[in-house]
Amino acid sequence: MLLVDRRFGARFRGTALRSTTVFSLADQLVLSRNRPAGFDYMRIALAAAIICLHGANVTLGLERAMEIVGQFRMVNAMLLALFFALSGFLVTASLLRCKSLISFIGLRVLRIVPALMVETTLSAIIIGPIFTATPLTRYFADSKFRAYFLNIVGDVHFELPGVFLNNPAPGVVNAQLWTVPYELWCYAILAFLAAATICFNRVLYLGFLVLAQIGLVCYDIYHSDELLIHLRPHLLVFCFLLGVGFYLWRDKVPFNRATCLFAVVLCAAGMAGGRGDALFAVPAAYVACYLGLMNPRRRWIVSSGDYSYGMYLYGFVVQQCVAAFGPSTQDWYVNVLISLPVAFGVAVASWHLVEKHAIRLRDQLERFEAAVLSRISMIGFSRRSPRPVELDTTVGGSASA
């Protein structure tokens, strides 16, 4: 009887101990076997939502669309914050598995550049000549045609000569690419922080985030008279860096529904007016991490490939092509109903024909890295934190990681 009582007491104390332990983001990662489906669903849902928002741009024109979208400013700001924060969370898992900047930068290039290069080339070589009002000899000789290929390296150009001139948003081919330079800044800053070992010491990194937060709040106060319909670009980068921070501190951050709902309320209240965005980037990043770590049943749409990047790349140009067919396709809902499935179909083709084959070059990249490190070992990362969990990260671009 005494033995039974002791066993019962030990079990009771163990249960009580577990009940007082906060269930963290790291715990949820383990529970989902480090492969949560939430990030996959989030990426494709956010890409679809961006296409829906762009429906106003391509059917009403940019100025009129900004007036309407500005009334739903919180939605627009929140979508971008979620995109960049989830990218930061996932890219950090990838970074901490890398042995040096060779593999980290190489993986980012493999994930982003091949699909972007194909989309840029198709837009310039096929879409442009079909929809241009300029004679083809002048089209191919125009400096805008040559400059358009700089999109591949992040120098964004939105126009091709004479293309979509009769659309409500005339001349714009790929408006969504405006985020690409800021994504590249995110990777460059993270690479610098890795080279300086700051992101391998989460206490140092937390101090860096606090200083950045103070600086951004002061910037917002100084520029309080400037209102945008979306987050300022530097805040997009900050949301990415917050995603990095949440990953580094994942074992201390609670995975809690009530906390997530409270964070959503804070974002709705703070981002709706466009003032003090820097204060509400943290709850927005938490919402991204919480939703991404949820693990609903994985359906075909996310288990067969990552189509979010392709939807991001091709969504706007598909919408402009649809709008070019005349007034019958220039109603917002008609354009979205046609463009969304077409963009998804093109994204499926992009994944299976381009993106997944580029990702398979990762083994060759790692062999090249190993060969370099065997000769110059000092360029490898000097880590101050444990190796990460094997969180699967296969995203890129605006939905990227």
Description of the structure:
With 401 residues, this protein is mainly alpha-helical. It has one domain (34-399). The chain is 67% helix and 0% strand. It has helices at residues 2-19, 25-31, 38-60, 62-69, 73-95, 101-131, 136-141, 143-148, 180-195, 202-222, 233-248, 257-271, 277-293, 300-303, 308-323, 332-359, 362-375. Helix 6 (101-131) runs antiparallel to helix 9, helix 9 crosses helix 11 and helix 10 packs antiparallel against helix 11 (233-248). It is globular and about 65 Å long. The model is unreliable at 1-19 and 393-401 (pLDDT under 50).
Instruction: Average the pLDDT over all residues and give the rounded result.
Output: 86
* Structural class by secondary-structure content: mainly alpha
What's the shape? globular
List segments where confidence is low: pLDDT < 50 over at least 5 consecutive residues.
Answer: 1-19, 393-401
Estimate the strand proportion: under 5%
Largest sheet: none
Number of domains: 1
Rg calculated over all Cα atoms: 23 Å
Write the H/E string, N to C: HHHHHHHHHHHHHHHHH
What is the count of β-strands? Answer: 0
Taking the alpha carbons of the first and last residues, their distance comes to: 57 Å
Protein name: Acyltransferase family protein
InterPro entries: Acyl_transf_3_dom, Acyltransferase_3
EC number: 2.3.-.-
GO molecular function: acyltransferase activity, transferring groups other than amino-acyl groups
